[in-house]
UniProtKB/TrEMBL annotation:
Pfam families: SpoU_methylase, SpoU_sub_bind. GO terms for cellular component: cytosol. Belongs to the class IV-like SAM-binding methyltransferase superfamily. RNA methyltransferase TrmH family. InterPro entries: Alpha/beta_knot_MTases (IPR029028), Ribosomal_eL30-like_sf (IPR029064), rRNA_MeTrfase_TrmH (IPR004441), SpoU_MeTrfase (IPR001537), SpoU_subst-bd (IPR013123), tRNA_m1G_MTases_N (IPR029026). Residues 12-90 form the RNA 2-O ribose methyltransferase substrate binding domain. It comes from Bombilactobacillus mellis. Keywords: Methyltransferase, Transferase. GO terms for molecular function: RNA binding; RNA methyltransferase activity. This is RNA methyltransferase, TrmH family, group 3.
Length: 257
């Protein structure tokens, strides 16, 4: 969203699933500035968006496809574009207090300079699916929540808290002081299939090309690796994250079976 901010600081959400996730939120009237629908386009999804918008007294405007193409930088908007208030990142200590109040052991995902918005969006979908209760990203040298991230996540950004911090290493130290065990990923480490992910944990995923930054790697409590026997010795960041998160999910769920 924020990569396509307007002068009035509104941001862009586009595509049916991303838009629908926003409109289902009870706070939609406070978040949505305007809904743009492609002129002359009629579908069941458009009708559903219109019904939800009217029930919440939101402003709807018909617009030519060329305008929606321009607003989304030729993205696959499916005839639906929302302008919203800037994305609300969550404060880490507020999130920790909320989890403590609910008696939940933190299950965090830390992204160490992920740059591809499609990877970020896909990672958010998986994180939401396995019950991650907070994703932590750096403020600089990494993608934030953009319109492409919102669309790729198919609404996960509306369900999972996202924390943006100044320094990943310092944040890891803060989590460790809260008795949260922090795991990193690298080519050499403990086989992820032996990973006990129960209790309060955080998993750190490195940059698409460089992996974990050296200072982050030094700070984590344990390094995990995904064994590979083929000629390709690296996986796409979102694929690797999916494998590890589902191992964590299996480990954590086994306690209640």
């Amino acid at each position: 969203m924020n990569s396509t901010s307007n002068k009035d600081q509104s941001e862009i959400i586009f595509g049916y699933h991303a838009a629908w996730a926003v409109l289902k939120d009870p706070d939609a009237p406070q978040k949505v500035n305007k809904i743009f629908l492609q002129k002359g386009l009629h579908s069941e999804k458009i009708a559903r968006i219109i019904e939800a918008a009217r029930s919440q007294h939101l402003v709807i405007q018909d617009a030519p496809k060329s305008k929606l193409d321009d607003m989304t930088q030729a993205g696959n908007h499916q005839g639906i574009v929302l302008t919203t208030t800037p994305f609300a990142y969550v404060d880490l200590f507020t999130l920790l207090k909320q989890l403590e109040k609910r008696h939940e052991a933190p299950f965090f995902l830390i992204l160490d300079n992920i740059n591809d918005p499609h990877n970020f969006g896909s990672i958010l979908r998986t994180a939401d699916a396995v019950g991650v209760n907070g994703v932590i990203i750096p403020k600089r040298r990494a993608v934030g929540v953009t319109s492409i991230v919102a669309k790729t996540s198919t609404g996960a950004i509306e369900r999972i808290p996202i924390v943006r911090v100044t320094n990943i290493v310092q944040t890891i130290k803060t989590l460790q002081k809260q008795n949260i065990w922090v795991f990193g990923t690298d080519m050499n480490g403990t086989d992820y299939r032996r990973w006990n992910a129960q209790g309060a944990i955080a998993l750190v995923i490195g940059n698409e090309g460089r992996g974990l930054s050296p200072l982050v790697k030094k700070q984590v409590d344990q390094i995990l690796t995904i064994p590979m026997i083929g000629t390709v010795q690296s996986l796409n960041a979102s694929v690797a994250t999916g494998i590890l998160l589902y191992q964590a999910f299996t480990s954590r769920e086994s306690k209640s079976l």
